[in-house]
Specification:
By secondary structure, the protein is of the alpha/beta class. It has helices at about 15-30, 60-75, 100-105, 110-130, 145-150, 180, 190-195, 205-210, 220-230, 235-250, 250-255, 265-270, 280-290, 295-300, 305-320, 325-340, 345-355, 370-380, and strands at about 35-40, 45-50, 80-85, 90-95, 135-140, 140-145, 155-160, 165, 200, 215. The strands form two sheets. The protein has a six-stranded mixed β-sheet with strand order 1-2-3-5-7-10, sandwiched between helices. Strands 4-6-8-9 form a four-stranded mixed β-sheet. Pfam families: ECH_2.
Length: about 400
């Protein structure tokens, strides 16, 4: 209780008393169990808890507008040594952004379609540039917006429940939230494979792919969080040592069972050439010529994706490979607004998330019909509307 810190003999003036009560109400609101995001300070740790379990902790604009200023405040606070972010409900860290709200806004030209992406990417940049150690406990589903809330931080702790994916090409979008920065930097062509096919990594494979920094059993996360809060000196090195100690104690059976990939990563290790094409048409040709079971499966998947999204994504990753995070996010904001003007995004969301018939009718329907001129236009600066970081 905030009021409890004051000496009983102290009699604040009416105005000061009102300020104290308002401050108390503000903090109570942030830690209210019904709030969409909980913001707490425990010891030297600032703790962000995504609290929309029924929506798999999907990120909306209201949550972004609470998280961003709090990270900035904790970053400047000498008594805050680290930041921890986690999700509630046991199923998801964060399954993505609140797509339905964006769809509804985009259909009527509402400003939300601009504001959401602009403010989300600004938050992603704040995480990527945060001066305080940032620990993301990615327990459960971690996709889209959830990736943006975790992957740019110092530490990402996966568990046997972690399911990681960037499935945006299936809904007429592209792997945003800085996907153009971290995906092409994964070993070989793993990032290209994940981006184009939306393949889901599970558990230890999130670590193997280089996305997670540590692997800890889900049931041990409360103890890990408690130990992180109890650290007397929360330097990056001390946090790494603590995470390493948990990582080294993982039950081998639990670790080995938490894998979905089996042959896929191994196939990819020896088949980097499959996803090394300079164009989507070349990648499709490589897969057809390879003819392996792995290649055929990837072809089947790619054929279901938005041809426009595939072409935008490939160029996004190729260009992002040599860009800073800020340059990537600026590029991705331009792409987000191009997608808001394109029918595939609305059709993809309809087919996958609303009607769920899984039968999107893409326009255009073939890769060859997506012109280089159209793709070029999607990457053009937006002038005064560009994202400024």
């Amino acid at each position: 209780m905030v009021l409890a810190v004051f000496n009983i003999s102290f009699r604040p003036k009416p105005f000061n008393r009102l300020q104290i009560i308002l401050q108390h109400l503000k903090i109570s609101k942030q830690t209210d169990s019904t709030a969409e995001v909980l913001l707490e300070k425990k010891g030297g740790a600032g703790i962000i808890t995504l609290n929309r379990p029924k929506a798999l902790n999907a990120l909306n604009l209201s949550m972004i507008r609470q998280i961003y200023p709090q990270i900035k405040t904790w970053e400047k606070d000498p008594e805050t040594f680290l930041i921890i972010i986690k999700g509630t409900g046991g199923k998801a860290f964060c399954a993505g952004g609140d797509i339905r709200a964006i769809i509804d806004a985009g259909k009527v030209g509402n400003k939300l379609a601009q504001d959401f992406f602009k403010e989300e990417y600004t938050l992603n940049n704040a995480i990527g540039t945060c001066k305080k150690p940032y620990v993301a406990l990615i327990d459960g589903i971690t996709m889209g917006g959830g990736v943006g809330l975790s992957v740019h931080g110092h530490f990402r702790v996966a568990t046997e429940k972690t399911i990681f994916a960037m499935p945006e090409t299936a809904i007429g979008l592209f792997p945003d939230v800085g996907g153009g920065y971290f995906l092409p930097r994964l070993s070989g062509k793993t990032g290209y494979y994940l981006a184009l096919t939306g393949f889901r990594l599970k558990g230890r494979d999130v670590l193997k792919a280089g996305i997670a920094t540590h692997f800890v059993e889900s049931e041990k996360l409360p103890a890990l969080e408690k130990d992180l809060i109890a650290l007397k000196s929360s330097s990056t090195e001390n946090i790494a040592d603590l995470l390493n100690s948990y990582h080294m104690k993982v039950n081998l059976i639990s670790y080995q069972k938490s894998s979905r990939i089996v042959e896929a990563v191994h196939s990819l290790t020896f088949s980097f050439s499959l996803f090394s094409g300079n164009s989507m048409e070349e990648i499709v040709k490589n897969l057809k010529q390879d003819g392996s079971a792995f290649a055929i499966k990837q072809l089947e998947t790619i054929n279901k994706m938005s041809p426009t999204s595939l072409k935008l994504t490939l160029r996004q990753l190729r260009e992002g490979a040599s860009m800073t995070l800020q340059e990537v996010l600026t590029m991705e904001y331009r792409l987000s607004q191009a997608c808001m003007r394109h029918p595939d995004f609305y059709e993809g969301v309809r087919a996958v998330l609303i009607d769920r018939d899984q039968s999107p009718r893409w326009k255009p329907a073939a890769l060859e019909e997506v012109s280089d001129e159209f793709v070029d236009n999607c990457f053009k600066p937006l002038g005064s509307n560009d994202l400024k970081l």
